[in-house]
Amino acid sequence: MAEIRNPNQGGGGDSNKPLLYMMLAMIVAFTVFQMWRGTKTQPLQKPTATNSATAPNAAGKSPVPTGSTQAFNQQAAGTAGAGNAAGAAAAVPAVVGTAEQTTVVENQLYRIAFSSRGGEVRSWVLKGQKDRYGAPLDLVHGAAAKQFGYPMSIYTYDQGQNANLKQALFVPSATGNLLAPQTLTFHYAQGGYDITKTFRFDETYVVHAEAEVKQNGVPVRALLAWPGGFGDQEQAQDYNSATVETMRGGKEEHLAFKKVVGGDTLNAPVDFAGVADQYFAAVMLPENIDNATAVTLSNKIDVQKLARDGKATGKSVDVPLLGVAVGATDGPAKLRVFAGPKSVPVLKSVTVSGRSGESLAPIMDFGFFGPIAKGLFWALYWTHEHLASNWGWAIVVLTVLINAVLIPLRVQTMKSALKMQRIQPQMDAIKAKYAKYKVTDPKKAEMNAEIMDLQKKEGVNMLGGCIPTLIQLPLLFAMLSTIPKVFELRGAHWFWLHDLTAADPWHVLPITLVISQFLVSFYMPSPGVDPAQQRMMAFMMPAFSLFITWNYASGLGIYWVVGNILMVITQLVMNQTALGKEMRALAAKRARKKANAPQGAKVIQGRR
Q: Which residues cross the membrane (predicted)?
């Protein structure tokens, strides 16, 4: 067996324990984050009465069964006064469809299929977007919509009424396939009810929607709803990552499912309200924010638990299902509906009514390291636009730029390490003087005071060698939370990788990261670190890096591997400078001295 020595390793002591504690804290933080992300299942709130399809209506009566249009007509006639109902029926000619019909509207971005039953959306396919199986992505969650309602359904505070409105056969202004720009209207009138839905389509992701409901000529407070779920939600973590996105008075809020109360009303001003998952959002923007109202919807749905390869495990789990309904406090509901990708440029193009400069961009939630993560995202986006047309190469280029900026700090780290090596013999002498005392002995405090006085006298800053690490850790955490959320990286290719938000299928990056992490630990200067601590960090950090990236977004692996390789190359170059040569000479001298000691030197062992 031959000894493998770190050329920059000085020797014993525990003066660098703060660095060890910081690295251990990072490991704990990474572990907690990974466990929270992959296995967290929170208890669900029970749906309130306003969310149950079988809840009593406003009058305290059970709703009429929702199986037919006739049932809806019977309930409408029963809830209206006899005289008023007769007068309304005479004043408004009946407008009722004879059979369910389908109308499809499409532009270059989407293909939306409406049903005349309820005047609702049955599918909302985004062109150019694929689900995890390669099929066209439908934003409508089929199972959830069938159970809780389809997009653009009418929501009132009478759930029995809501259920029956979904069964009403509207008369569409057109059927078949239509191309945007287009206007589509659905009309229903019978039993005292007069309901009109109007949708206007252009070449963007935004659809203009209006809904007006009258009962016996009196306006009914009715909202348009996206009851919950997206077509790309399959695994439990997809549902758990969903949020309700709101902005009121210019202040945005991201509500996780634990904080969403089903049936909770948000009063004016409501700038926008919607639901979002990791990559897509359905957001409603009222035309008059000062006369707008919104209702948050929370249900639960039983889904099949999937393995990481997408195959069913045979187990099921209850997961949260979030939705919203938006309209006006009085009068018809007039709003714009955005249903599309959470691409920041796209979100910035959708402005908020009555709010100069405000857009949907705030629904991008970058987490605790938001400001840093947002800066990294825009730097990555700029790099992709101007320096690299491929997102994988954009990550590589951005990593190179970040490391170039950190070079002066690494030079400063080497200078600090050199000063530490120069005074290491004096520090060892002080420690030897107090070696006979126990750790809990007050004399140890005197030892630490002497060491600190020596460092102060020689101009040694204990934190000087930690500055690059202190900068890189927030960047790593920010990248950790950013890359899986960036829509542009979804489906982005780079060599063998076909989706930079998915794990490396061949695990090439995690394995390479382990090797590069070991080289970083081996070549980076660590004067004053105890050999036992050095060995622990040399093997613990690569193992933990492997744990983090094995099933994480491959874009993070690119950033981490390239950063480590650049750190090693930079250190090798710096080792050839006068500063580096002096450090290695001091390290070699110290190693020879410890090798001649009776107890021997503790070193990292490896094969020749």
A: 19-36, 363-384, 390-411, 462-487
